[in-house]
Amino acid sequence: MINLLGRRRFLEVAGIAALVASFDGATARAAATRLRLIYWGGQARAEKTGKASQLFSDRTGIAVQNEFLAWSDYWTKLATQIAGGNAPDIVQMDYRYIAEYASRQVILPLDEFIGQQLDLIGFDQDQIEGGKVGGKLYGISLGANSVANIVNTAVFEKAGITLPANGFTYAQLYEYAELFKQAKLPNGVRVISDASGHEQMLESWLRQRGKALYTADGQLGFDVDDAKEWFILWSKLREAGVCVTAEDNALATGQMESSMIVMGKAALQPDNSNLLIAYQALMQDRLALAPYPLISVDATGGQYRKPSMFFSIARSSRAKSEAAQLLSFFISDPEAAKVLGTERGIPCSEKVRTALVTTLTPLERAGLEYVSGLGKILGPIPPSPPTAAGEIYQSALTNISQQVAFGMEKPENAGEMFVQQATELLSRG
Amino acid sequence: MEIARNSDAIPLHRERARSKGPRWYSSPQAAGYIFLLPWGIGFLCLSLGPILWSLYLSFTDFDLLTAPEWIGTANYVRMFTADTKFMTSVKVTFVYVLFSVPLKLAFALVVAMVLNRGIRGLPLYRALFYLPSLLGASVAIAILWRQLFAGNGLVNQFLAQFGIQGPSWISNPNYSLWTLIILAVWQFGSPMIVFLAGLRQIPADVYEAAQIDGAGPWRQFARITVPLLTPVIFFNAVIQTIDAFKTFTPAFIISNGSGGPVNSLLFYTLYLYQEAFGYFRMGYASALAWVLLIIIALFTAFAFLTSRYWVHYDE
Prior knowledge:
The complex is a heterodimer. Helix content of chain A is 46%, strand content 12%. Chain A is of the alpha/beta class. Chain A starts with a helix and ends with a helix. By secondary structure, chain B is mostly helical. Chain B has 15 helices and two strands. Chain B folds into two domains: 2-57, no CATH class; 78-310, MetI-like fold, CATH 1.10.3720.10. A two-stranded antiparallel sheet of chain B has the order 1-2. Chain B is globular and about 75 Å long. The longest helix of chain B has 32 residues, at 84-115. The interface between A and B is medium-sized, with 29 and 26 residues.
């Protein structure tokens, strides 16, 4: 990564030098045949995206310069580039931020390209809807995913547990813990990481109760009692030794490498379904997917299929139609699809999925089957969250859940604290 | 300036000045200013300009994506009346500064005095002890520290030899800040080098005279070493305090930018970084930066104002 950035920096400097040296008007035309693409992700994604970009260049003669960063660095870098008037042509977008970037006029509505450069025939309607803000299409979904528990099957096998195909309930977590103890598993591995500060787990739990994390008008979709019950639920799981200890859980600081499942502290890790491939790359034990826990066996609507990420085009791009061409290539070209696989989620185009079926690896197939087999626990996709959602998660929810876990705050009081802090952040904007 | 004035003596220069009258570029000062220009442009554009810009931004609401909007002193008002996270970060930083600086200086002085006794291989030891100072702010050391003080880290493996089951120091809010204070103390190298130079300046005959008068080692230390070393202590204290206030890297790496667990590693600079680059409140972050500047300036001014009562310069 450092090498890559170094080389890119060099290219930038060289590019400026070339620009200064050959200031004859031809540079404007030259710029149109070179696209800049920026995205977050790991090494595997970088390799796949780089290969697909190369395929595109070979076919069209349009060079694509790739730049990738980790999720936490990505948004800083992107905002800085935009503020400096140096935004890349194509930017990877998240469902969390697309409304904000669209409303600030940073990204371009893509409707004019549909049927022209952009081929959306046979593209899943719900994935098109997910990329719309105010009725206009601002992002093209690169794949569908859903939240999922990454399951360490080796641990479950040692404890003699077969996972129910259609998921498990919070109550069953206690049974698993009992079986874990009886099997005397090494290193005292627990059933699940402490997800009391996990935004998506909270959302799934709220949705099963008929509530939501946020309403359509960007307010909290739950009240103090819901939040209180949530923190009490996890305090009980913690006391019973079902989830990992506060000290262990605080070691997980966001990178996959420090997560509880990779560290061997927990057998279940709540995350997103497309990340199965990335987790498996870090672990020897065989991994599988399971839904988030249910509040009861007949609970519905906790999960939803969502666009795992989008490609959007910057308004400042001087090569918009070429950029749209690249988007279309990524989502609909069978050759590109074979290179990209399901690393960004399940492809949204019917014809791409058919083309892929024969070449999928077992892990990719598991992801595909998981997302298409969620059945009745699948609900409608919620509206995109308000701007403050990220801060409410990282600042308020994480911090309060840790205070409860370390015994510095009573779970009974945590609900009110959380609602109060979240409301304040929402009003601050 | 002295050199520039001397250049008047060069005959050719004087001749030209007489025949055509003074030109701006032929005046002796001009040469000096022209030579200063590369630094001057850099200072104006890369230092002073951004500093003044950030002062302006501190009175605005600015999210990088849309133009800054003037909101008067609202950022400063919020900081001191409504922002509990700000208060937490100030507290964390003050605890860190108040403990890490004295401990580090004391440790540096002790090691300097040991090295000053004229042991063999002094340059080697000096280099070895200085090494952590060079590495201290690096990412690698922060990661190493995380490994050392984790639940199954080296520290707890050592404690286990004595039957002690240590906590996960780095991820327990009661201890995490202390692991960073230890990290700071471990980087005692640069004040140690300065102390060592200071100790060398103290003439040996002063100690000899004290010995003849019957002063023991402790008395010699308290009455000779410390008073004669006060200018060096003063210098080290000011530099290390400023450095400690600006600590960022270890907290950022160890908590992955979150300042957790339970904001126990939420250093001032880390909070500033979160506001600026996590939540894109550049205006608020600029205001935070200016308040930090004022805090550091106050501490430094306090040190300088009180120095006349406790710092003894050689007559």
